[in-house]
Design goal:
Blueprint: H1 2-25, E1 35-42, E2 58-66, E3 73-75, E4 82-85, E5 89-93, E6 101-104, E7 110-111, E8 117-118, E9 124-128, E10 145-146, E11 152-153, E12 156-166, E13 171-176, E14 181-187, E15 189-191, E16 199-202, E17 205-207, E18 216-218, E19 227-230, E20 232-234, H2 240-275
Antiparallel strand pairs: 1-2, 3-20, 4-19, 5-6, 5-9, 5-15, 6-17, 7-8, 9-10, 9-14, 11-12, 12-13, 13-14, 15-18, 16-17
Length: about 280
C-alpha cells in the first residue's frame, strides 16, 4: 500500500511541477493568467471499520484552477494596444467557416490587409453599436460586428482616415483629414458568472463552458468589466519569486515521495531476505 500511496504523491508532485513550470514559461506572455494545482487526500474504509486504525491512501488532483487576478499594465504608446483594468474580456471572432467566438485579455491588436482589427492569432475584434454620444445601443450577441477601419469619411470620400482613438469606456472614434469624426462602435466586453470555469484554448484565449456560464456582453465601465486602457498591455500575473519558491517546494515533495518508495522497497527486500 505504501508503494501506491507514494506513487500518488509522485504523480501529484509531477503535476504541480508542470503547472508551476508553465506559469514560469509564460512570464512574458501578454494577458496570461497563472494556474494553481489543487489536491485532496484519498481515504477509504469499510462502514464497520474503525477509521482510527486506517491510514490514508494518498493524494489526488482535484483540479488545475486559473487565477484571474489583474496583471500589471505596461505602456506601449500604440493606440490599438489595449488592456483591461478590471475583470472583463475582449470578444474576438475566428475566421470562416466556423467563426468561433472566444475571449481574451491579450489586447495586442493590429490591422490586416482587409483593414480588420485582429489579435495575434488572426481573430477579429468585435464592436457593439453605439449612438452619437458613444453609448452602446444593444448588447445582443447578434448585434456585434467586426472592427474595421474606414479608409475615408463616409460623407466625404476625399477625406482619408487620420486618427483612431479608443476611450476608457471602449468607444472607438475615427477622425478624418477634413476634421470630421465618426463613432465606429464600442469594444465588446464580456464577463462571466464563474470565470474560473472558462476553458483555456491557448494564446491567452478562453471559451465559455457550462461551468463558466454564458458571456454577459456590455460596454466597458459597466459592472465588473472595468475600463479599457489604450496604448497599454497587460502583463502576465506572474510573481517570479513566488513561482520559484513553489517550484522548490514541488521538487522537494517529489524527492520526499521518491524516498518513501525507496524506503518501502528496502523494507520489502529485507522481509524477502528473512523468508529465504
Amino acid at each position: 500500500m505504501s508503494f501506491v500511496t507514494s506513487l500518488s504523491g509522485l504523480k501529484a508532485a509531477q503535476t504541480d511541477l508542470s503547472v508551476v513550470s508553465n506559469n514560469i514559461a509564460n512570464g512574458n506572455s501578454i494577458g496570461f493568467k497563472k494556474s494553481r494545482a489543487a489536491f485532496g487526500d484519498l481515504f477509504a474504509s469499510a462502514p464497520t471499520q474503525s477509521t482510527k486504525s486506517v491510514a490514508g491512501q494518498g493524494v489526488r488532483l482535484n483540479g488545475i484552477v486559473q487565477q484571474f487576478t489583474q496583471g500589471s499594465l505596461n505602456s506601449t504608446d500604440r493606440t490599438l494596444d489595449l488592456a483591461v483594468a478590471g475583470d472583463g474580456f475582449f470578444v474576438v471572432k475566428g475566421q470562416p467557416p466556423r467563426e468561433a467566438q472566444s475571449y481574451t485579455r491579450n489586447g495586442s491588436f493590429s490591422v490586416n490587409v482587409d483593414r480588420e482589427v485582429v489579435d495575434n492569432t488572426g481573430n477579429k475584434v468585435q464592436l457593439l453599436p453605439v449612438n452619437a454620444a458613444g453609448q452602446v445601443t444593444s448588447t445582443a450577441n447578434a448585434d456585434m460586428f467586426d472592427f474595421v477601419l474606414p479608409q475615408t469619411d463616409p460623407n466625404d470620400p476625399s477625406a482619408v482616415l487620420s486618427n483612431i482613438t479608443v476611450a476608457d469606456d471602449g468607444a472607438v472614434t475615427a477622425t478624418f483629414s477634413n476634421g470630421s469624426q465618426t463613432r465606429l462602435g464600442a469594444i465588446a466586453m464580456a464577463s462571466f458568472a464563474a470565470v474560473e470555469g472558462l476553458r483555456p484554448i491557448g494564446d491567452s484565449h478562453w471559451q465559455a463552458t457550462g461551468d463558466s456560464g454564458v458571456a454577459l456582453l456590455n460596454q466597458a465601465g459597466n459592472g465588473p468589466l472595468g475600463t479599457v486602457r489604450s496604448g497599454t498591455l497587460e502583463a502576465a500575473n506572474i510573481d517570479l519569486t513566488e513561482e520559484l519558491v513553489a517550484l522548490i517546494a514541488a521538487q522537494r515533495n517529489f524527492q520526499a515521495n521518491a524516498q518513501a518508495i525507496e524506503t518501502a522497497n528496502n523494507m520489502t527486500q529485507t522481509i524477502v531476505n528473512l523468508q529465504v
